[in-house]
Amino acid sequence: MHESLMELLWSTSHFSGGNLEYVEGLFESYLVDPNSVSEEWRKCFDQLPRVSEAQSTDLPHSVIQEQFLQIGKNKFRAMPASSGVAVSSDHEQKQISVLQLINAYRVRGHQHATLDPLGLQKREKVADLDMGYHQLTGADLDTSFNVSSLFFNKESMKLGDIVSDLEKTYCGSIGYEFMHIVDTQEKAWLQQRVESVRSHPEYSQETRESLLERLTAAEGLEKYLASRYPGAKRFGLEGGESLIPMVNELIQRSGALGAKEVVIGMAHRGRLNVLVNTLGKNPKDLFDEFEGKKLVNTSGDVKYHQGFSSNVMTAGGEVHIALSFNPSHLEIVSPVVEGSVRARQDRRKDTTGKSVVPISIHGDAAFAGQGVVMETFQMSQTRAYRTGGTVHIVINNQVGFTTNRQEDSRSTEYATDVAKMIQAPIFHVNGDDPEAVLFVTQLALDYRYEFGRDVVIDMVCYRRRGHNETDEPSGTQPLMYNVISKLKTTRNLYAEKLIAGSVVSKELSDKMVNDNRENLDNGRHVAQSLVLESQTKMFVDWKPYLGVEWTDEGDTRYPLAELQDVAKKLTHVPDGVVVQRQVQKIYQDRDKMTAGALPLNWGYAETLAFATLLEQGYPIRITGQDSGRGTFSHRHAVVHSQKDGSTYIPLKHLSDDQPTLDLYDSYLSEEAVLAFEYGYASTSPQGLVVWEAQFGDFANGAQVVIDQFITSGEHKWGRLCGLTMLLPHGYEGQGPEHSSARLERFMQLCAEYNIQVCVPTTPSQIYHILRRQAIRPMRRPLIIMSPKSLLRHKQATSTLEDLAEGSFKTVLPEASESIAADKVKRIVLCSGKVYYDLINRREALEKDDVAVVRLEQLYPFPYADLESVLEQYKNVESLVWCQEEPKNQGAWHANRHRMNRVLEKLYPELKIRFAGRISSAAPAAGYMSVHVEEQEALVNDALVG
């Protein structure tokens, strides 16, 4: 029977809960006296490796084995050398019960912790935190039990002291959730840090005074703004003032641990306070914003969306702090921060995340409700997106806008339960206990540095003034705000505690308040350790990218001989890498393209663009769900050996000193991944940053990023970003979800030269536009409607000479030499794949009086280039815009007035008409037969209609 028990233990990775406690108890008993357990369990435990064996073997252990080994290590360490005497079975059973009680506190003590400053939180009684549940009674309180696995500085304690210390450790102002972590080392580390000081470390007088000073600054700013600008929205921090000393400690401790940069993301609540009291924004500048003075040459944004950066001095040296700009879309800033952090880490060649630390500050309702939180957690340990762990702070106001009932705001016990999906430790802490807040802050950051993983601090507090300062919160939360109206502030509670303990005098406490008020009155900086003259080496030099005109196209040519040399490197695969048959054919064809025996296709031209940029010193980052291979198998930049599954990337082996190439297949996310890449590109201006959608319409899962950051970030916040988006687009009968990249949405967002929207139709065009995006210093997002069927279209080809010479053409003229300009009576303007349908149908109809002109750049609209192409046609009788998309979609409505600016000048008597699908609620038909019929009709209409 023991064999089946062993098999169960070894194969069950989720062996936990009460069963695990029971087995652990039996194992503890076995370690003291093997005869105290049944023969079946004794045989089971006999087969476990001993501690010395585990240390000398390289064999992997299951979670259960590791759990037993840790118990064994603790037990053997605490056991006297002469220990071999059997303990009475009654006492041993009690010992097991004590260990079960200890484990219950570790697992569920948080449910009895005093977390709510308002005292309104109703907690159900947890049965297994009661001694009676474990068959322990008051008569056992004076009995000593082994606790070596609980407190590392004691071997045994009386049960009464054990319970008292467990309550102090796990049921005070802090509630811990870390027993869901499967890594034994991490749990042991956390238990040691928490239990060794019973969650109550002794802080020095200096530390306590500093805590009080930071609370004074936090409360002082809110009171000052309330009196000076009554009724103005500010999303104040009142009720959550402990955030300021928390963030201050994170920055100072990060610097002491070696960090050089800290990037912070947060939504509205407390943002102004963080700006002034942490980052050192001059209060006078904030007051000017309240008074409506324009400080920047942009459309601007409300005060509580603004970003900022500064430098502070720490024990480890100067640290640069950046607060990311954020729209009202709450959690969307979280992945943007991760992207910015990764860019900074890459710039510093920091692969462990020690030099740049991300801090994300959340609201409880948004943390529980927004899906991007889960997506951001999911990226935390992936190769493409990891940043060495993020410190998450939840400002838990215990209420959303007006939704305060847990059954309405979420389906989980805590707002932070989503973090358990990546086994992040979660520290719930009462915001009215500043010293407890300080302890979990230090614990969280140290954990992040020790294990390189995310950690969550859930600071339970409240909102003193409702959602914003114009709300009357008692209308929807009468009981809560009845309590809040009578509640002393966090700062006052702590000041009274320190005064009562003779840590500070009342005079010093009052002086802190008066000094803070005086500094605010005089518009002086109130942040601690602010460096007013920062080291410039900490910053990226954006000067080359500022004020660049759109007309600066950059030189995208590349000498033919050098291009051929690069091409040869791209198809070289070393011996030992067994290339899959179809991939081998692709690489062989590329050799022929290099030699001129075959015309260049799309995938090769695109790869050559990347290669030549790398050769010229431009770093490249490409991510997407199928970016290595390409969704449509056109790229194959990553070769997978059929022998052992290893990978080889020719683009990484061009030269010894080439810049970085990051090429990753992403996890299945659009919103968080696109936001990450935006954050990366807006922090790292040099080179090329590309996000590729699997299908273009998948980008609508990231619409918030497109609307709030990519298309408007420069105008709102002055943030330049050179991100490139590759969105497969084209009507090939694949149905409504795999046809359109929703071109019309991007066109609707075009204004003030904010983005570039292009639809290249030849390999040389994609080659030059990708190179242009990296080479020219103009940094604005590039949206490419990339093809699907054109990737292998026999007519969509170029030559190596096309790549070596020339540039990206915003307008491509009529390509057929048989179309004489003086005979042209009709001009058909179009973009994208439909061009090839049009010229092939024109040839079948033998029409030589129709010119087909391609708009390859839809925005910024190429007025001069279009006029230059069209002015040769003097005898035109009709003008047509042809598109595959329905009339209410595509580029027709957005660009009609732009086309007319040129057409009315050249052909004032003519009106351009539309040829395409009729308006439709869906992007495309779902039946191939309908698609073919519609396609033929719109092409015929454009040419002869």
Structure commentary:
With 945 residues, this protein is an alpha/beta fold. It has four domains: 2-195, no CATH class; 205-527, 3-Layer(aba) Sandwich (Rossmann fold); 560-804, Rossmann fold; 813-944, Rossmann fold, CATH 3.40.50. It is 40% helix and 13% strand. The strands form five sheets. The chain has a nine-stranded mixed β-sheet with strand order 3-9-10-8-7-4-6-5-11. A seven-stranded mixed β-sheet has the order 15-12-16-17-19-18-23, with helices on both faces. The protein has a five-stranded mixed β-sheet with strand order 20-22-21-24-25, with helices on both faces. Helix 13 crosses helix 24. Mean pLDDT is 88; it is low at 1-18, 50-63, 75-87 and 301-305. It is an enzyme of class 1 (oxidoreductase). Residues 600-793 form the Transketolase-like pyrimidine-binding domain. Belongs to the alpha-ketoglutarate dehydrogenase family.
